Amino acid sequence: MSTPDTAETEVPYGIPLERDHPFDPPAAVMALHRGAEMRRMRYYPEGREGWLVTSHRLARKVLADTRFSSTLGGPAQVPIPMPGLEAYLDFEGDFPLTPGMFIEMDPPDHTRLRRKLTGVFTVKRMKQLEPRIAAHVQDRLDALAAGSKPADLVAEFAVPVPAMMICELLGVPYDQRERFEADSRAIFTTDETGEGKQNAMLSLFAFVGELVAAKRANPTDDVLSDLAADPELSDEEVAGMAILLLVAGHETTAKMLGLGTMALLANRDQWDLLRERPELMAGGVEELLRYLTIIHTGLIRQVKEDFEFEGHQIKAREYVTVSVQTANRDEAHFIDPEKLDVTGDAKGHLTFGHGVHQCLGQQLARMEMRIAFAGLIERFPGLRLAVPAAEVPLVTGQSFYGVAELPVTW
Amino acid sequence: MRIIADTEACASSGMCALTAPEYFDQDDEDGRVVLLAEEVEDCDDEVADAVRLCPASALRLGP
């Protein structure tokens, strides 16, 4: 029997986060992807073995198969370092569910809660929302134009536009955003302790709980009022669902707008193409979603019972990480995946996930990005970075990759 | 070809309505797929894309 070389037998410890280039996945992750579609990987904090899936083909397959459960359990395992998990090392069962947090549930619980919201996020409803999104975008562009140069595009544009929209849709007063913004950030920051995250979640539940009670007493025309009036949902479920929408609708599009603008400025021909041919914007947004893959730590599942998958024996309690950033750069699926090409075909990218959990707010996110990038390019055609690209601070220590600031001038 | 939609499996992602709006719409209440046409020409790329992209594998083409 021949001995496979060490590169193939060595089990990597977690997903590398260090990048050589702001827009490309870490070279070490791409090397793992080129070596095998699926392999063993050690998980933090104690090096237990699970799986890493890197190809587009298998990523789709795993995400569509509910035997790979979204309900996670102990002992705690994560693909990147995170403090505070030691407390969960002796824990053997499923982690207690946060009420309403259907992102971490399986059917039929997941289906019951998700279907309460899917009518709100249809393609049609998002088209009706277009003038409201455009109004928020114009508002922020006016503020940018009236303000001083250079400006931080993240604080002045990328963060407020989706925040204003999700607040309006939910019925959360935008002027109370300081009550949820810090907590929302704490939940996604990998260097926050488990206790810190739990406190942030409790504080969010308190904030949204008050709002739910107020909406029940005095309903308004928004999602929170509709949920509060639903007799099939408990108060805690309503609060959990609202928190999920609030934090998911807040951090994700903001990261895409900041990093996406930087990518277009670094690829000036692509910026110019979108300026000259606005009809390319819809495809351009898909391409930015594919090329940048802000969910850089992947999607995590856990198997509940042993089964065979693609010739591998998968064991109960093992964790599986689906690396979306490599799937979106898979040459077996995309033509020239290393290049940002707004005229290319990015269909089938997995940035919104795949399977029954595929992003609920994806049509909102698409609409926001199309209107925001188009507005920015039209208003500031000569926009440029105000610092060398290497000095733009990158955010690698959060669930969503992006830039912390984007100093721009025009 | 006939378009077949499994509304039980549908996850209301809207991928079909986005990709092939002449053939697919979404229910106003829960966003599930509504077929605007039951028959499609064999070579319609948009419908083929919609079937391929459906995250819940709720769409297929049949004779």
Q: What would you note in describing this structure?
A:
The complex is a heterodimer of chains A (410) and B (63). Chain A is built from 15 helices and twelve strands. In chain A, a hairpin with a 4-residue loop joins β1 and β2. In chain A, the strands form four sheets. Chain A has a five-stranded mixed β-sheet with strand order 1-2-8-5-3, covered by helices on one side. A three-stranded antiparallel β-sheet of chain A has the order 4-12-9. In chain A, strands 6-7 form a two-stranded antiparallel sheet. By secondary structure, chain A is of the alpha+beta class. Chain B starts with a strand and ends with a strand. In chain B, a hairpin with a 6-residue loop joins β2 (24-26) and β3 (33-35). Chain B has helices spanning 15-19, 45-53, and strands at 2-5, 24-26, 33-35, 59-62. Chains A and B meet through α15 of A and α1 and α2 of B.
Order of helices and strands of chain B: EHEEHE
Low-confidence stretches of chain A: 1-6
> What share of the residues of chain B does DSSP label as strand, in percent?
15-25%
Q: What coarse outline of chain B follows from CA principal-axis ratios? A: globular
The termini of chain A sit apart by 65 Å
Rg for CA atoms of chain B: 10 Å
Cα gyration radius of chain A (Å): 21 Å
- Biggest beta sheet attributes of chain B: 2 strands, antiparallel
| Strand order, sheet with most strands of chain B | 1-4
Number of helices of chain B: 2
Count helical runs of chain A: 15
Helicity range of the residues of chain B? 10-25%
Percent helix range of chain A: 40-55%
List the helices and strands and how they pair.
The complex is a heterodimer of chains A (410) and B (63).
Chain A: H1 6-9, H2 27-35, E1 38-43, E2 48-53, H3 56-63, E3 68-69, H4 109-114, H5 123-146, E4 151-152, H6 153-158, H7 160-170, H8 178-188, H9 194-217, H10 223-228, H11 235-266, H12 268-276, H13 281-292, E5 299-303, E6 307-309, E7 312-314, E8 319-322, H14 324-327, H15 362-379, E9 384-385, E10 394-395, E11 402-403, E12 407-409
Parallel strand pairs in A: 2-8
Antiparallel strand pairs in A: 1-2, 3-5, 4-12, 5-8, 6-7, 9-12, 10-11
Helix pairs in contact in A: 5-7, 5-15, 7-11, 8-9, 8-11, 9-11, 11-15, 13-15
Chain B: E1 2-5, H1 15-19, E2 24-26, E3 33-35, H2 45-53, E4 59-62
Antiparallel strand pairs in B: 1-4, 2-3
